Amino acid sequence: MYHYQQPNRGGGHHKGQHLIKVTGEGELVVQPDLASVNLGVITEGKDLIPAQQQNAIQSTKVIQSLVELGIPQTHIQTFDYRIESDYDYEQGKQIFKGYKVTHILQVKIEDLTMIGKVVDNAVQNGVNYVSNIQFTVNNKDPYYQRALVMAVNNAIGKAKTIADSINVTLIPTPILIVEGSSPIHPYSYQPETMVKAMSTTPLEPGQIKIKAIISAEFHYRTI
After folding, report:
1. Same domain as 113, residue 61
2. Using the 8-state DSSP alphabet, how is residue 113 labeled?
3. Shared-domain flag, residues 17 and 96
4. CB 3.0-4.6 Å disulfide test: which of 80, 132, 157, 176 passes with 38?
5. According to the model, what pLDDT value does residue 208 have?
6. What are phi and psi of 190, to 5 degrees?
7. Rounded to an integer, what distance in angstroms lies between the CA atom of residue 130 and that of residue 53?
8. Residue 97 forms part of a structural domain
9. DSSP letter at 7?
10. Structural contact between residues 77 and 106, judged by C-beta atoms closer than 8 angstroms
11. What is the distance between the alpha carbons of residues 211 and 196, in angstroms, rounded to a whole number?
Protein backbone atom coordinates (compact mmCIF):
# COMPACT_ATOMS: atom_id res chain seq x y z
CA MET A 1 0.00 0.00 0.00
CA TYR A 2 1.44 3.40 -0.90
CA HIS A 3 0.44 6.95 -1.61
CA TYR A 4 2.18 9.13 -4.22
CA GLN A 5 1.40 12.82 -4.33
CA GLN A 6 2.06 14.66 -7.60
CA PRO A 7 4.13 17.82 -6.98
CA ASN A 8 2.59 21.21 -7.66
CA ARG A 9 3.78 22.30 -11.12
CA GLY A 10 2.65 25.89 -10.56
CA GLY A 11 4.77 28.68 -9.15
CA GLY A 12 6.21 28.41 -5.66
CA HIS A 13 5.36 24.80 -4.88
CA HIS A 14 6.07 23.77 -1.31
CA LYS A 15 8.61 21.09 -0.48
CA GLY A 16 6.10 19.32 1.75
CA GLN A 17 4.03 18.50 -1.32
CA HIS A 18 6.79 16.21 -2.60
CA LEU A 19 5.69 13.18 -0.62
CA ILE A 20 5.70 9.42 -0.95
CA LYS A 21 3.68 7.60 1.70
CA VAL A 22 4.09 3.87 2.31
CA THR A 23 3.36 1.21 4.88
CA GLY A 24 6.03 -1.15 6.13
CA GLU A 25 5.62 -4.58 7.67
CA GLY A 26 7.91 -6.83 9.65
CA GLU A 27 7.10 -10.30 10.94
CA LEU A 28 8.91 -12.89 13.05
CA VAL A 29 7.90 -16.50 13.65
CA VAL A 30 8.96 -17.62 17.12
CA GLN A 31 8.59 -20.56 19.46
CA PRO A 32 6.17 -19.86 22.34
CA ASP A 33 7.41 -20.20 25.91
CA LEU A 34 4.15 -19.68 27.82
CA ALA A 35 0.73 -21.32 27.69
CA SER A 36 -2.60 -20.72 29.35
CA VAL A 37 -5.66 -22.93 29.55
CA ASN A 38 -9.14 -22.58 31.03
CA LEU A 39 -10.17 -25.50 33.26
CA GLY A 40 -13.75 -25.66 34.46
CA VAL A 41 -15.79 -27.54 37.04
CA ILE A 42 -19.49 -27.67 36.20
CA THR A 43 -21.95 -29.15 38.68
CA GLU A 44 -25.71 -29.52 38.40
CA GLY A 45 -28.38 -30.19 40.99
CA LYS A 46 -31.98 -29.68 41.94
CA ASP A 47 -31.02 -27.59 44.95
CA LEU A 48 -28.61 -24.69 44.71
CA ILE A 49 -26.69 -24.98 48.00
CA PRO A 50 -25.66 -28.65 47.55
CA ALA A 51 -24.65 -27.96 43.93
CA GLN A 52 -22.61 -24.95 45.01
CA GLN A 53 -20.93 -26.87 47.83
CA GLN A 54 -20.09 -29.77 45.54
CA ASN A 55 -18.59 -27.34 43.03
CA ALA A 56 -16.48 -25.68 45.73
CA ILE A 57 -15.14 -29.03 46.96
CA GLN A 58 -14.30 -30.18 43.45
CA SER A 59 -12.69 -26.86 42.48
CA THR A 60 -10.53 -26.92 45.61
CA LYS A 61 -9.41 -30.44 44.76
CA VAL A 62 -8.45 -29.32 41.25
CA ILE A 63 -6.45 -26.36 42.56
CA GLN A 64 -4.61 -28.55 45.06
CA SER A 65 -3.76 -31.09 42.37
CA LEU A 66 -2.35 -28.35 40.13
CA VAL A 67 -0.19 -26.97 42.95
CA GLU A 68 1.08 -30.49 43.71
CA LEU A 69 1.95 -30.81 40.03
CA GLY A 70 4.22 -27.77 40.34
CA ILE A 71 1.97 -24.95 39.11
CA PRO A 72 2.51 -21.86 41.31
CA GLN A 73 -0.61 -20.66 43.14
CA THR A 74 -0.10 -17.24 41.51
CA HIS A 75 -0.56 -18.87 38.09
CA ILE A 76 -4.04 -20.12 38.99
CA GLN A 77 -6.89 -17.64 39.06
CA THR A 78 -10.66 -17.64 38.66
CA PHE A 79 -11.59 -16.71 35.11
CA ASP A 80 -15.37 -17.07 35.50
CA TYR A 81 -17.85 -18.10 38.15
CA ARG A 82 -21.58 -18.24 37.54
CA ILE A 83 -24.81 -19.84 38.73
CA GLU A 84 -27.57 -20.48 36.22
CA SER A 85 -31.05 -21.90 36.34
CA ASP A 86 -31.50 -24.92 34.08
CA TYR A 87 -34.74 -25.62 32.23
CA ASP A 88 -36.29 -28.23 29.97
CA TYR A 89 -38.97 -27.42 27.42
CA GLU A 90 -41.87 -29.78 26.84
CA GLN A 91 -44.76 -28.91 24.55
CA GLY A 92 -43.82 -25.26 24.69
CA LYS A 93 -43.72 -25.19 28.47
CA GLN A 94 -40.66 -24.26 30.51
CA ILE A 95 -39.92 -26.85 33.20
CA PHE A 96 -37.37 -26.11 35.90
CA LYS A 97 -34.64 -28.79 36.12
CA GLY A 98 -32.32 -27.33 38.70
CA TYR A 99 -29.18 -25.25 38.89
CA LYS A 100 -25.85 -25.30 37.11
CA VAL A 101 -22.77 -23.94 38.89
CA THR A 102 -19.71 -23.17 36.76
CA HIS A 103 -16.25 -22.31 38.09
CA ILE A 104 -13.59 -21.78 35.42
CA LEU A 105 -9.92 -21.43 36.36
CA GLN A 106 -7.31 -19.88 34.09
CA VAL A 107 -3.96 -21.61 34.49
CA LYS A 108 -0.62 -20.33 33.18
CA ILE A 109 2.00 -22.94 32.30
CA GLU A 110 5.66 -22.03 31.80
CA ASP A 111 6.93 -25.54 31.11
CA LEU A 112 5.27 -26.35 27.79
CA THR A 113 6.14 -30.03 28.10
CA MET A 114 3.65 -30.14 31.00
CA ILE A 115 0.57 -28.97 29.09
CA GLY A 116 -0.88 -32.38 28.34
CA LYS A 117 -0.11 -33.58 31.85
CA VAL A 118 -1.78 -30.52 33.40
CA VAL A 119 -4.95 -31.09 31.38
CA ASP A 120 -5.04 -34.82 32.13
CA ASN A 121 -4.41 -34.27 35.83
CA ALA A 122 -7.15 -31.64 36.02
CA VAL A 123 -9.67 -33.89 34.29
CA GLN A 124 -8.77 -36.78 36.61
CA ASN A 125 -9.46 -34.52 39.59
CA GLY A 126 -12.88 -33.26 38.56
CA VAL A 127 -12.51 -30.83 35.66
CA ASN A 128 -15.18 -31.48 33.03
CA TYR A 129 -14.66 -28.43 30.85
CA VAL A 130 -11.44 -27.45 29.04
CA SER A 131 -11.17 -24.52 26.65
CA ASN A 132 -9.12 -21.63 25.26
CA ILE A 133 -5.64 -23.13 25.25
CA GLN A 134 -3.28 -20.38 24.09
CA PHE A 135 0.43 -20.36 23.39
CA THR A 136 2.30 -17.07 23.57
CA VAL A 137 5.64 -15.45 24.42
CA ASN A 138 6.32 -14.29 27.97
CA ASN A 139 8.67 -11.45 26.97
CA LYS A 140 7.63 -10.32 23.50
CA ASP A 141 9.29 -6.89 23.51
CA PRO A 142 12.69 -7.95 22.07
CA TYR A 143 10.94 -9.83 19.24
CA TYR A 144 8.63 -6.92 18.53
CA GLN A 145 11.57 -4.50 18.41
CA ARG A 146 13.21 -6.69 15.77
CA ALA A 147 9.96 -6.83 13.79
CA LEU A 148 9.72 -3.04 14.05
CA VAL A 149 13.20 -2.63 12.52
CA MET A 150 12.15 -4.95 9.71
CA ALA A 151 9.03 -2.84 9.14
CA VAL A 152 11.03 0.38 8.86
CA ASN A 153 13.47 -1.22 6.40
CA ASN A 154 10.53 -2.57 4.44
CA ALA A 155 9.02 0.93 4.20
CA ILE A 156 12.33 2.43 3.04
CA GLY A 157 12.66 -0.26 0.38
CA LYS A 158 9.15 0.39 -0.90
CA ALA A 159 9.74 4.14 -1.03
CA LYS A 160 12.97 3.65 -3.01
CA THR A 161 11.22 1.37 -5.49
CA ILE A 162 8.44 3.91 -6.01
CA ALA A 163 10.90 6.79 -6.40
CA ASP A 164 12.90 4.87 -9.01
CA SER A 165 9.77 3.96 -10.92
CA ILE A 166 8.63 7.60 -11.20
CA ASN A 167 12.15 8.88 -11.89
CA VAL A 168 12.65 11.03 -8.79
CA THR A 169 15.36 11.10 -6.10
CA LEU A 170 14.24 9.84 -2.72
CA ILE A 171 15.48 11.45 0.48
CA PRO A 172 15.87 8.15 2.36
CA THR A 173 15.32 9.46 5.89
CA PRO A 174 11.57 9.46 6.56
CA ILE A 175 10.01 12.70 7.76
CA LEU A 176 7.30 10.82 9.65
CA ILE A 177 6.86 7.30 11.03
CA VAL A 178 3.64 6.21 12.71
CA GLU A 179 3.51 2.88 14.49
CA GLY A 180 0.47 0.76 13.73
CA SER A 181 -1.34 -1.68 16.00
CA SER A 182 -0.17 -5.18 15.19
CA PRO A 183 0.88 -7.06 18.31
CA ILE A 184 1.58 -10.72 18.86
CA HIS A 185 -0.78 -13.28 17.38
CA PRO A 186 -1.06 -16.13 19.90
CA TYR A 187 -1.73 -19.63 18.70
CA SER A 188 -5.00 -20.95 20.09
CA TYR A 189 -6.21 -24.51 20.43
CA GLN A 190 -9.89 -25.03 21.14
CA PRO A 191 -10.73 -28.55 22.31
CA GLU A 192 -14.24 -29.74 23.03
CA THR A 193 -15.53 -30.16 26.56
CA MET A 194 -13.79 -33.10 28.24
CA VAL A 195 -15.71 -35.34 30.62
CA LYS A 196 -13.23 -38.13 31.38
CA ALA A 197 -9.51 -38.55 31.82
CA MET A 198 -7.31 -39.19 28.82
CA SER A 199 -3.80 -40.57 28.63
CA THR A 200 -1.16 -37.97 27.73
CA THR A 201 -3.30 -35.51 25.78
CA PRO A 202 -1.16 -34.36 22.78
CA LEU A 203 -1.14 -30.55 22.76
CA GLU A 204 1.54 -29.08 20.50
CA PRO A 205 2.58 -25.42 20.94
CA GLY A 206 3.46 -24.86 17.26
CA GLN A 207 4.76 -21.39 16.36
CA ILE A 208 3.40 -17.88 16.75
CA LYS A 209 3.80 -14.70 14.74
CA ILE A 210 4.91 -11.31 16.02
CA LYS A 211 4.20 -8.55 13.55
CA ALA A 212 4.93 -4.82 13.36
CA ILE A 213 3.30 -2.34 10.97
CA ILE A 214 4.23 1.29 10.38
CA SER A 215 3.27 4.06 8.01
CA ALA A 216 6.01 6.39 6.78
CA GLU A 217 6.32 9.54 4.71
CA PHE A 218 9.34 10.50 2.62
CA HIS A 219 10.36 13.64 0.80
CA TYR A 220 11.76 13.39 -2.70
CA ARG A 221 13.37 15.67 -5.28
CA THR A 222 12.59 15.73 -8.95
CA ILE A 223 15.53 14.85 -11.19
Report:
1. yes
2. G
3. no
4. 132
5. 86
6. -115, 90
7. 21
8. yes
9. P
10. yes
11. 39
Q: How far apart are CA 125 and CA 89, in angstroms?
A: 33
How many structural domains is the chain composed of? 2
The three-state secondary structure class of 28 is: strand
Which pLDDT does position 69 carry in this prediction?
94
pLDDT reported for residue 95: 87
Please give the pLDDT value at position 49. 95
| pLDDT lower than 70: segments of the chain | 1-17, 181-205, 223
In this prediction, residue 138 carries a pLDDT of 87
Residue 203 belongs to some domain of the structure: no
**216: domain range?**
2-30+141-184+211-222
Answer yes or no: is 22 within a domain.
yes
Residue among 153, 109, 171, 156 at smallest CA distance from 135: 109
Residue 198 lies in a domain: no
Bridge partners for 34 per DSSP:
136
State how far the Cα of 60 lies from the Cα of 89, in Å rounded to an integer.
Answer: 34
Q: How many CB atoms lie within 10 A of CB 88?
A: 10
What is the CATH number for 161? Answer: 3.30.110.170
- What's residue 194's pLDDT? 46
Element housing 156 (H / E): helix 141-165
Tell me the CATH number at 60: 3.30.70.2970
pTM exceeding the 0.85 threshold for the entire prediction: no
The answer to whether residues 152 and 217 belong to one domain is yes
Q: Would you state the pLDDT for residue 94?
A: 87
